[in-house]
Design brief:
CATH class: Mainly Beta
Distance between the termini: 83 Å
InterPro entries: NosD_dom, Pectin_lyas_fold, Pectin_lyase_fold/virulence
Protein name: Parallel beta-helix repeat protein
CATH architecture: 3 Solenoid
Number of domains: 1
Number of strands: 23
Pfam families: NosD
Structural class: mainly beta
Order of helices and strands: HEEEEEEEEEEEEEEEEEEEEEEE
Shape: globular
Largest sheet: 9 strands, mixed
């Protein structure tokens, strides 16, 4: 049996310990292929008037703490994973996806936003899933989840409760092509107690199915 000396064992133990410390001490920001987002908005572009930070590059973004500001996505091929954390923005929207495609917004608890909790404007082929959107739209009765001029998106398995306007709304102005929201899939959402309606969507041009909404009073 080969014996291992004391000094090599100590050196190995120290190397393992230092690697563990390095992993646990990684700060917010770009970590390999994932960009971590904290409440300081480190590494993102601030948009002061709306209390938001702008995501303008493709990639995977992961929250590592709750946020007191919104996020605006203007790049294609973005995954924003809330990692179960909260987001609130008392000034404007929670998450806005604007003029881009192939964006995923998931696993966020969004509440108390002055505008929509999640807004898709002129967005296509995006996925909004497994989010909780409550008590949003305090200004002008804005919906919890709002789509305008957006096509071929999927709004799936979200919990949308007690927002000031509609729960989920897809604006559809027939004579203004850029304002039409069509070919979207609204499926398996729980949408309750939204005073202007739970799902305000033109079902003739969108796929609306399998949602749980507030029962009508008899």
């Amino acid at each position: 049996m080969t014996k291992i000396g004391y000094k090599p064992l100590v050196a190995l133990a120290l190397a393992v310990l230092m690697s563990l410390v390095a992993v646990s001490a990684v700060p917010a920001g770009n970590q390999g292929n994932t960009i971590y987002i904290d409440d300081s908005g480190s590494g993102l572009i601030p948009d002061g008037p709306t209390n938001c930070y702008i995501i303008n590059e493709s990639g995977k973004y992961l929250l590592n703490e709750s946020l007191t500001h919104g996020l605006k996505i203007i790049a294609n091929d973005v995954t924003l994973d809330g990692n179960g954390y909260n987001l609130t923005n008392r000034i404007a929207f929670g998450v806005q996806v604007y003029n881009c495609s192939d964006v995923t917004v998931r696993d966020m608890d969004i509440f108390g936003c002055n505008w929509a909790g999640i807004a898709l404007g002129e967005a296509s082929d995006c996925m909004v899933e497994k989010n909780c959107v409550t008590d949003c739209g305090k200004a002008w009765g804005t919906p919890g989840i709002n789509l305008w001029g957006s096509v071929c998106n999927k709004i799936i398995n979200n919990y949308v409760y007690n927002n000031t306007g509609c729960g989920i709304k897809a604006n559809d102005i027939a004579n203004v092509e850029s304002e039409r929201s069509i070919y979207n899939k609204i499926h398996a959402n729980t949408v309750l107690e939204n005073p202007l309606g739970d799902i305000c969507v033109n079902e003739s041009v969108n796929d609306v199915s399998g949602n749980h909404v507030t029962p009508e009073e008899e």
